[in-house]
Amino acid sequence: MSLRVCNNVIECIGKTPIIRLQRIEKDQNVDFEIWAKAEFMNPTGSVKDRMAYYMIKKAMDKGELKPGMTIVVPTTGNTGISFSALGSYFGLKVLIVIPEEMSAERFMLMRLFGADFLFTPGGESDAGTALETAKKLAEENPDKYYFFDQWSDEANVQAHYETTGKEILDQIGCPDAFVAQVGTGGTLMGVAKRLKEECKNVIVAGAEPAECPVAAYWFKTGKEGPWGRHEIEGVGDGFVPDIVKRYKHLLDDFVTSTSEEAIMMARKIARLEALPVGISSGANVVSAIKLGRSHGLGKGKKVVTILPDYAARYFSTRLFKKKREIVDRKKILEELSI
Ligand code: PMP
Fold first, then answer.
1. Best label site of 131, 203, 271, 275, fewest CB within 10 Å?
2. Does some domain include residue 292?
3. Domain presence at residue 261
4. CA distance 254 to 224
């Protein structure tokens, strides 16, 4: 085992463990192996650190983004936390454009890193409004803002091609299947691109909340599916991201699971595997089980998925509470001492 030494936070991004979920395999009575990449072990606690670093680095290398500038980031949460953290590291001001119903824990963390906010209506499935608002703001004030669109930026795909995908291969070799929930589709498509290059028969599937199967329908019929509210924060943003359209040819299948299934599985992962994961991690593991079963994978076959973030990011959601807590964001921010 090699012990890690980081000269700075950037060097601590990625190189996450991959963990076999043997207790879940047994509990769910599946013959195949479920392997999960522990992305909650990134510095800010989510998979999005990888992408935020690649996107900021690309813009800085091109000379377009310089310290002191303000970046505008539409997000439903984890991206905002990663950009807020790395923004402070690189000396950038950060304006987060975010739906007002996202969990309070997220705003508080972004504020810890010094970010400012612009709120848009709605919750998780309303990311499109945050995206349009941020885009308009940046277009109207080009000298003031540098705009990041995580749903289309190729650096997002590249981050997962060069790091997450490569790490999986280095850790366990070629898997038989890979599945990930679609937020931007960056994780899914970056890993897919790497695996499809190196592993002849790998099955790659996208996954979405069953209540908002916009991309899942689009994959199967060419037409966007019905929009709906769901509770799997960070994914199912309510439109088909550019990245998913760009790399559709890499996908073999699409799986859906309900918010309820995701929440129950996230709790089960805590109780059986002692891993404190968020709701989309539950959804990913449910999706891995469904995918392995529907493709008839048996003993010795490996299905890989992602554990994108931590349970502690969900105290106000139904992962912990009977009812999702909708709090007054402005009040929370006013009351903060930072
Ligand atoms: N789960 C969570 C909790 C997330 O925040 C995200 C990113 N929005 C994802 C999954 C999906 O990742 P990606 O954007 O790479 O599709």
1. 271
2. yes
3. yes
4. 13
Which residue has a Cα nearest atom 12 of ligand 1?
Answer: 183
Q: At what angle do helices 78-89 and 104-112 cross, to 10 degrees?
A: 10
Q: Is the CB of 317 under 6 A from ligand 1?
A: no
Whole-number average pLDDT of the chain: 95
Ligand 1 geometric centre to CA of 150 (Å): 11
- Distance, in Å, from the CA atom of 258 to the CA atom of 124, rounded to the nearest integer, reads 14
User: Could you tell me if the CB of 308 is within 6 A of ligand 1?
Assistant: yes
Summarize pLDDT for 131-188 with one digit per residue, the tens: 999 999 999 998 899 999 999 999 999 999 999 999 999 999 999 999 999 999 999 9
135 lies in the same domain as 195 = no
Decide if 338 is inside a domain: no
| Strand bridging mode 116-120 / 203-209 | unpaired
Shared domain check, 237 and 136: no
Please name the residue whose Cα sits nearest to atom 2 of ligand 1. Answer: 234
Say if the ipTM goes beyond 0.90.
yes
184 C-beta closer than 6 A to ligand 1: yes
- Domain count of the chain? 2
**What are the pLDDT digits (tens) for 88-120?**
999 999 999 998 888 788 889 999 999 999 999
User: Quick check: CB of 75 below 6 Å from ligand 1?
Assistant: no
CATH number at residue 120: 3.40.50.1100
pLDDT, position 1? 58
Cα separation, 74 vs 118, in Å, equals 9
CA of 48 to the centre of ligand 1 (A): 7
Other C-beta atoms lying within 10 Å of the C-beta of residue 298: 10
Q: Is the pLDDT of residue 327 over 80?
A: no
| C-alpha distances in Å from residue 22, one per residue of 19, 36, 118, 274 | 9, 11, 43, 12
Given a contact cutoff of 8 angstroms between Cβ atoms, the answer to whether 275 and 292 are in contact is no
For residues 94 and 174, state if they share a domain.
no
Q: 299 and 193 share a domain?
A: yes
Nearest of 337, 266, 317, 309 to residue 104 by alpha carbon: 317
